[in-house]
């Protein structure tokens, strides 16, 4: 994770961002801190990257890389406003000394457009494209990680990253909003995941799908009450958190967390 101490909305690179929006940085840090504390309280270890002035979106740490079993596929951002973030993420993994970092040649935005299901096909990468990550990066990540990749086409600009339209709940199961995807992708998802928890538009727009789950607890935006009820009915324990300030930048829970799969 990376604290939002320099968070602001000074440009617009997704439909949620309005450069005229006032950001309460103190509240953003308070909400982010509560998210970090929630993860620690659930038994997880959280590493914190140093925030950098001039890079307000570094708080959305998920976009900086994608790791599977100690191999890290680095990010190459679509927009120049975020491109400098990639080197800071690379440096973070280098400092850990237990990760093999692979620099990308194709445009991709890390876990923003990649999700992982270790229980499917010996490890299945769900990969989004349509707005940020180039389709060619799907082939590249397949080679780098040695895992099967299922490409999913996003067509609604409000859901510009996969992680605002779909989330892994455990090693086999996902939750997603069908309306974010092209019809052929919807059919693929229906066939491949008949047991998925299907979200409606209201909870998708509340960033409910921008969640992180450890297989038991699903930490999600507190506004997504309908999805929380569906998750509870499916056997997961919803853990709501409020991230109203960070939503102004087009992100929520999942965007703030880069999962380290050792």
UniProtKB/TrEMBL annotation:
<dbReference type="GO" id="GO:0019546">
    <property type="term" value="P:L-arginine deiminase pathway"/>
</dbReference>
<protein>
    <submittedName>
        <fullName>Amidinotransferase</fullName>
    </submittedName>
</protein>
<dbReference type="GO" id="GO:0016990">
    <property type="term" value="F:arginine deiminase activity"/>
</dbReference>
<dbReference type="Pfam" id="PF19420">
    <property type="entry name" value="DDAH_eukar"/>
</dbReference>
């Amino acid at each position: 994770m990376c604290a939002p101490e320099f968070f602001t909305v000074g440009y617009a690179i997704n439909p949620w961002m309005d450069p005229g929006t006032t950001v309460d940085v103190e509240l953003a840090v308070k909400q982010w801190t509560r998210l970090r504390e929630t993860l620690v309280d659930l038994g997880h270890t959280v590493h914190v990257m140093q925030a950098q002035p001039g890079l307000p979106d570094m708080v959305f740490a998920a976009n900086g890389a994608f790791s599977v079993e100690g191999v890290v596929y680095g990010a190459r951002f679509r927009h120049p406003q975020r491109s400098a973030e990639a080197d800071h993420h690379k440096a973070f993994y280098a400092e850990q000394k237990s990760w093999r970092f692979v620099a990308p040649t194709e445009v991709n935005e890390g876990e923003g457009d990649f999700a992982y299901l270790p229980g499917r096909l010996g490890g299945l990468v769900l990969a989004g494209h349509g707005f940020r990550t180039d389709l060619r990066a799907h082939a590249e990540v397949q080679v780098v990680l040695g895992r099967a990749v299922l490409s999913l086409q996003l067509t609604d600009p409000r859901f510009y990253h996969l992680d605002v339209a779909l989330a892994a709940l455990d090693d086999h199961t996902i939750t997603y909003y069908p309306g974010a995807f092209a019809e052929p992708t919807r059919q693929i998802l229906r066939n491949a995941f008949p047991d998925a928890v299907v979200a409606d538009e209201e909870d998708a727009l509340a960033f409910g799908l921008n969640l992180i789950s450890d297989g038991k607890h699903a930490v999600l935006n507190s506004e997504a009450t309908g999805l929380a009820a569906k998750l509870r009915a499916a056997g997961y324990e919803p853990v709501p958190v409020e991230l109203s300030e960070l939503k102004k930048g087009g992100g929520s829970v999942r965007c703030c967390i880069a999962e380290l799969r050792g």
